[in-house]
Each structure stands twice: as C-alpha cells, then as structure tokens.
Amino acid sequence: MSSWKTAGAVGTFVLAFAVTSLNLAWSEDTKLPNLDVAAARAANDAPATPVTQDQLNAAAGDESNFLQTNGNYDQTRYFPGKQINTSNVGKLHPAWIFQTEVKESQETTPIVVNGVMYVTTSFDHVYALNAKTGEEYWHYKHAMGPVTTYCCGPNNRGVAVYDDKVYLATLDSQLVALNAKTGSIVWQTQIADPTLGYSETMAPTAVNGK
User: Fold this and answer.
1) Cys-Cys crosslink for 105: which of 7, 96, 173, 191, Cβ 3.0 to 4.6 Å?
2) At the top level of CATH, which class does the domain 44-75+104-209 belong to?
3) pLDDT tens digits for 28-54?
C-alpha cells in the first residue's frame, strides 16, 4: 500500500494494480470541489464491517486489510502481504482507474477494510470505493467553516476506522465521524479554533474507542 503527492496536474486517480488486490494511489487533479455542500452521495451502501480494537492491534500482520494510515500503531508503513514479490511485480497492470472531483494535490493513504477502500482528498472529501472494481459506494464532502490558514496546502492525509465509523480531521479543525456504510455524519465536534490559525491535515488515530 502506498501513497504519494503529485502537484499541479490534470485529474486525481486511484489505481488498483493486478496481479493481486494491492492498491497504489497517486494524484493529478480535476475541478475544484464545492466547499459549501456537506453530502454523502450514497448510490450504494458500502458493505462495511466493524473494525475491532483487536484488529487494529494486530494490523502489522494483517495481509488482507490496511487498517491504519502508516500500517500499524508503530507507524512502520510496512505491508506484510506476499502475493506481490520480485518474481511478479513486473507483470502488474492497471485494473481500474478512479477520478475524484478535487483539483489539488494528494497526500493520502487509502485505508482498506474487507474490500472497501476509504480514501481522502484535499479539501476534506472522503470516498468509499470497492477496492476490487473501483466502484464508488459513497462520497462525503465536508461543509467547510472558516479557515484562516493551513501549513502545507489543503491536503488531507487519511482517515481512521474503528467499529462502524470512519473518522476525518478537517481543515476547519473539526473531527467528523461518518457512518462507514453510508458516509452520513454520525457526529462532529470542534477540536481547535481555526480563527487562531489552527487546521488539521493529519489522519486521526483511534485507540480503544477514542
């Protein structure tokens, strides 16, 4: 699992590379997002399954999922899967392409839970995708409040998953909990004052329900 940034191009794509289900993400850019609309467009509910604390604790050895932004609580960025190796990596080819609505850089890591991929973009969009086909299950657009400044561009570095929720930290310093199946808001709370120059671009970390 990998992510990296490419700035100032023409469209944002998420690709799944086969021989296996390993997913790599890169970004170029497309049209500006609508920052006035908070919506989860749920054409189909995602077949999301709850994530337990035991799963998060064991994420470093999980060959079927990628449950944390840097792979595990130790932040190693290592994926233990063995299907892709030196003997077949040269045979990888694009299995699908997904284009987002957001014209900006990309600094996110996809989170994969039992075949559902959660990926963020700049300006605090979240997409739930079928990791095998690239089909979009839902798309959440954050209704942005006041943002006076941000340190490194309007990037978002990913979500956290726990139980039946997906957690997003936003540029206007809110923490938002989304329903993993539908993308609808379960709750949101202000965690800092954006008028004092605070903004959030990092992925949250979930531990024991907090």
Assistant:
1) 7
2) mainly beta
3) 333 333 333 344 554 579 999 999 999
